[in-house]
Amino acid sequence: MGKLNGIDKFIFFINSVLATLLLLSYILPYFPPKHFAFLSVLSLTVPVLIIVNVLFALYWLLKLKRQMILSLLVLVFGYFYMGTLFKFSGTTESKSADELSVMSYNVRLFNIYNWIPDADTGLDISRFIKKEQPDILSLQEYHPNNKSIDFSSYKYNYIQLAGEKNQFGQAIFSQFPIVNTGSVKFPNTPNNAIFADVVKDEDTIRVYNIHLQSLRINTEVEELRKQDSQRLLKSIGHSFAMQQEQTELFLAHKNTCKYKMIITGDLNNTAYSYVYRKIRGDLDDTFKEAGNGFGKTFNFKFFPVRIDFIFADDADFNIKSFKTFNNEVHSDHYPIMTTLSLH
Questions:
Q1: How many Å apart are CA 334 and CA 287, to the nearest integer?
Q2: Which residues, at least 6 apart from 9, have a Cβ–Cβ distance to it below 8 Å?
Q3: At what angle do helices 6-25 and 46-62 cross, to 10 degrees?
Q4: What is the Cα–Cα distance from 48 to 270, expressed in whole angstroms?
Q5: Whole-angstrom distance, CA of residue 56 vs CA of residue 49
Q6: Is residue 88 part of a domain?
């Protein structure tokens, strides 16, 4: 427990900077990206900041140094304030007749541009979904022209296409009757939010499928090295500002809904962001309630990133289980699914 040597003093300085950044990140969800674009970028780094501070705490613990208290206090505060990055246990209850399962999946246009060297991607996704049989299926970046996809097992659907020549968009498939549908259009982008009101037994449930503005980051190492950091940060900040505008449009629509509600989709932002806090509102994050592990939903090599979500109101639903299918590599996203029962 003696004094620090020169190397440990330098390590503790770095530790102090990163602990301060993590502490700052806890209040970022309250800063609108339109006015704090640069600060909002920090929300993307929260998972790595948490992991690094855990490593610092372990380093000082092994050296029996009181400096471990800094990272430990910041991590403990974050756990009670923001929740945990890693879920140590989840639920594994099997589905019963009175429950419904909901899956959200960004299918990346079913790989029509061959980002993945697999010509059968559309067929593989169809087979996967047929195997899991979610009652309600929300797809982002849906493309209708891949002839290998087959969702004919679903009796009802709502598809809203956008982009150039209406080539792609969002889709909701349901085993329950759909009695009403609609779209929330976002300006100057093919991204949007759609909804379908489905009827299960005596209940009408609104299912939203939302896809916020992409950050357009190429996650390949070589491509990242080529990026001008200042231009990249500016681009991300601009995308975050667009996400805020899209979120405000979505919330204005959401606030008019009187039905029980489930929100699914790809927010293109983390659980430590402004848009996550606003869209989630009083709803439960089904991963936090019943998930397991890091819940990684985006295929980013450097640290776990969770940007796909399913929210449900605990006043209306019991969250029975949650699963991230991170062995499915048919897109740059992984599918997620929750099982819910109605109160």
A1: 14
A2: none
A3: 140
A4: 12
A5: 10
A6: no
Count other C-beta atoms under 10 Å from residue 195's C-beta: 28
How would you class 27 by CB atoms within 10 Å of its CB: exposed for 0-12, middle for 13-18, buried for 19 or more? exposed
Q: What is the pLDDT of residues 45-102, one digit of tens each?
A: 899 999 999 999 999 999 999 999 999 999 999 988 777 778 876 665 566 768 999 9
Amino acid code (one letter) for 125 = I
Domain CATH for 170 = 3.60.10.10
Neighbours of 211 (CB within 10 A): 28
Q: Please check the confidence at residue 217 and state whether its pLDDT lies above 80.
A: no
Residue 10 structural domain? 6-82
Token pair 């997620």 in the structure block, residue: 336
For residues 185-197, average pLDDT:
96
Q: Could you give phi then psi for residue 198, rounded to 5 degrees? A: -110, 150
Euclidean distance between CA atoms 263 and 259, whole angstroms = 12
CA-based angle 304:309:312, to the nearest 5? Answer: 140
As for how many domains the chain has, the answer is 2
